[in-house]
Amino acid sequence: MEIEAKIATYLVHAGWAEAEPVVKFLAAGEYNENYLVIDDLGEKRIFRINHGTQLGLKNQIEYEFNVLKAVEKEMMAKGFTKSQNPAVLVSIFTKANSYYNYVNTT
Asked: What are phi and psi of 21, to 5 degrees?
């Protein structure tokens, strides 16, 4: 079974999709693979598989999610909006000023 079919089956089995979604490979990096998931209503999501971590974190995906949410919050505060059909793509390159160690205790 191809990985896309395994992802679709997993999403249904986990209750994240009611019907089997369309799954398409997007891109991969050294430590991850990214897939576009389109559900039966046409909603698009990204499914990310993490294979390792450069930072030695126990939960790299959670760390990345929190970084993206922080970027989203700052961009919204600056007046940017999200769109399903964006006219502008924003790339953000950052330089660390300090080390942040996130630990989820819940």
From this structure: -80, 165
Backbone phi and psi for residue 9, each to the nearest 5 degrees, phi listed first: -65, -45
Strand pairing class (32-38; 44-50): antiparallel
Domain coordinates of the chain in residue numbers?
1-51, 53-106
- Please list the pLDDT of the chain residue by residue as tens digits (106 residues): 799 999 999 999 999 999 999 999 998 888 889 999 999 999 888 898 888 877 888 888 888 888 888 888 888 898 888 777 777 766 666 665 555 555 555 4
What is the reported pTM?
A: 0.65
How far does Cα 11 stand from its chain's mean position? 15
